[in-house]
Pyridoxamine 5-phosphate oxidase
Amino acid sequence: MPHRYAEIAFTPTVKKAQEQFGSRDAYARMEGAPETRNHRLSGLETEFIAARNSFYMATVSETGWPYIQHRGGPTGFVRVLDDSTIGFADFRGNRQYISLGNLANDDRVSLFFMDYPNKTRLKLFGRAKVVGLDDDATLSLLETPDYRARVERGFLIRVEGFDWNCPQHITERYTLDEVRAMTAPLTARIAELEQQLAQAAGAEQSRVQIIR
């Protein structure tokens, strides 16, 4: 089957732009190559999504304006339910409900999952379905019990296509927890040296007192 992500993204006008700037031949090969992973999530995508604590989601309004929203939560709050479905709980935010309103008119979404430390990006096309609070069975799959935020609804997204992006121009960024993990050995070593210095200072003070 054709590369599903390319099939969606490479519209006639996009292909014209690729032809104009010299990349069309490469992407034509991408479209024609036998591809089995681009519309079914494998273990690689599942692990990558499970390790994320945020993503970006784009929707389109009935007036044609795109809207991008940042979604965040504890690591793993986006769940891969099967090889073609992901879902997440919608935590209360600023209550503008722009994404929610847009989805009432057009269920198509585009998602970016970013791994800044490793300069990796997974982009995904899908169709979103809103899950109400009365759907206990589905919401139970999306809940994060230890996260203290009010859940207003859930979202299920049927994957239509995805692709991995190149690392070019992605700036490395780290969360506070990641920085703490990386500097933990240094922090421990500093504490050890400070303790040794304190012990040495105490021993020197005792020696001086004995001499006196």
Remarks:
- The chain is about 40% helix and 30% strand.
